[in-house]
Design a protein that fits this description.
The two termini are 38 Å apart. The protein is α/β, with parallel strands linked by helices. The chain is elongated and about 65 Å long. The relative contact order is 0.13. The strands form 3 sheets. The chain has an 8-stranded parallel barrel, surrounded by 7 helices. A 4-stranded antiparallel sheet has the order 2-3-1-4. It has a two-stranded antiparallel ribbon with strand order 5-6. The structure holds phosphoenolpyruvate and manganese (II) ion. The site of manganese (II) ion has 5 residues, from loops.
């Protein structure tokens, strides 16, 4: 079992827990993770013993098993966590549409697409200012200039924005402009970065690594929770498989599985998951039917001219046609 104590538990409170845990006849292992103290015992936490520990002061929770995460676990917290991005709530009844370009390219591009995705029903604007590109010679994003444009458009249209942060030293800068911090697929195991966003009080959109196992992905979220930030949204965005016909393979059952294993909201990114604009609507609808709490969709006014990920961008008109279908599927599975 794993016992999690509050970070401000005193030595005597920790001592009392260790004494109680010592009754199992095995030595407990104590470690610290961010704002929590964690005690591991190689015995089950089911039954009276676990209940007695659960009732002790400063014990946040007791979970069974030996997974690499506790705070993110559904066993640790039964109720769904709601994540608030300004006035938008993820993890409630609404399937939240987040849309915008892969990268912020110019004021005209951003304003034009933002107005149209808002009209189509998007509640959060996406757009990268720092872009993780495979080639160092590819467009790397506008950097702080892009962040300023996002903040400007956000103010003007009253639309919260999510944007990627790639390095721990960028966190303060990005957090000044953005409403939600995105951790990209390639950064899912950048542990110093996870800790740094965990120390902010900004909501975090954590993308699954393209080669992350489910438990590794949840453990990445645990790094953020362990620092005291529980405003984390998990995003399934496709994984690497043997098939290279699509850009990635959309793991649609990861959505209900993650929702069983954790209490965090789970969204899907059908754009990166498929890499093909023509497949985005079906993947978006499948994700909605599978219980996604939101969708992150790339949209560009002129996909052929996009500086990144044009092949997977839907036009704002296509998004406007897709949005009512998403609402219809959402309604069919008891969501709004
Ligand atoms: C993106 O959202 O533009 C992006 C780079 O996503 P991912 O990290 O999932 O590849
Ligand atoms: Mn992209």
């Amino acid at each position: 079992m794993i016992i999690v104590l509050e970070g401000d538990a005193t030595d005597s409170e920790i001592g009392a827990v260790l004494k109680e845990a010592g009754r199992f006849g095995t030595a407990p292992a104590v470690s610290r993770a961010g704002s929590a103290t964690v005690v591991r015992l190689p015995v089950s936490g089911k039954g009276d013993a676990g209940d007695r520990l659960r009732a002790m002061p400063q014990v946040r929770g007791v979970v069974d098993g030996d997974l690499p995460y506790v705070l993110a676990s559904r066993d640790f917290k039964r109720e769904d966590t709601l994540v608030r991005v300004r006035d938008v709530v993820l993890g409630g009844r609404e399937v939240v549409l987040m849309a915008g370009p892969c990268a912020v390219e110019s004021r005209d591009q951003l304003f034009s697409v933002a107005k149209q995705v808002k009209a189509a029903g998007a509640r959060i604007l996406r757009g990268g200012a720092f872009k993780p590109r495979t080639s160092p010679y590819a467009f790397q994003g506008l950097g702080e200039e892009g962040l300023k444009l996002l903040a400007e458009v956000s103010r003007e249209l009253d639309l919260p924005v999510v944007t990627e942060v790639m390095a721990p030293e960028q966190v303060d800068l990005v957090a000044r402009y953005a409403d939600m911090l995105q951790i990209g697929s390639r950064s899912v195991q950048n542990f110093p970065l996870l800790k740094a966003v965990g120390r902010t009080r900004k909501p975090v959109l954590l993308k699954r690594g393209m080669a992350s196992e489910i438990d590794e992905f949840i453990a990445a979220a645990e790094y953020i929770l362990a620092e005291g930030n529980d405003q984390v949204v998990l995003c399934e965005r496709g994984i690497r498989t043997f098939d290279s016909r699509t850009r990635f393979t959309f793991d649609v059952v990861a959505i209900p599985l993650l929702k069983r294993l954790t209490h965090l909201p789970v969204v899907a990114d059908p754009s990166h998951a498929t890499g093909m604009a023509a497949l985005v609507p079906q993947a978006a609808l499948a994700a909605t039917a599978a219980g996604a709490d939101g969708l992150l969709i790339e949209s560009h006014p002129d996909p052929r001219e996009a500086l990144s990920d044009g092949r997977q961008a839907v036009t704002p008109e296509e998004l406007a046609r897709l949005a009512p279908q998403i609402r219809a599927v959402a309604a069919a599975v008891g969501r709004a």
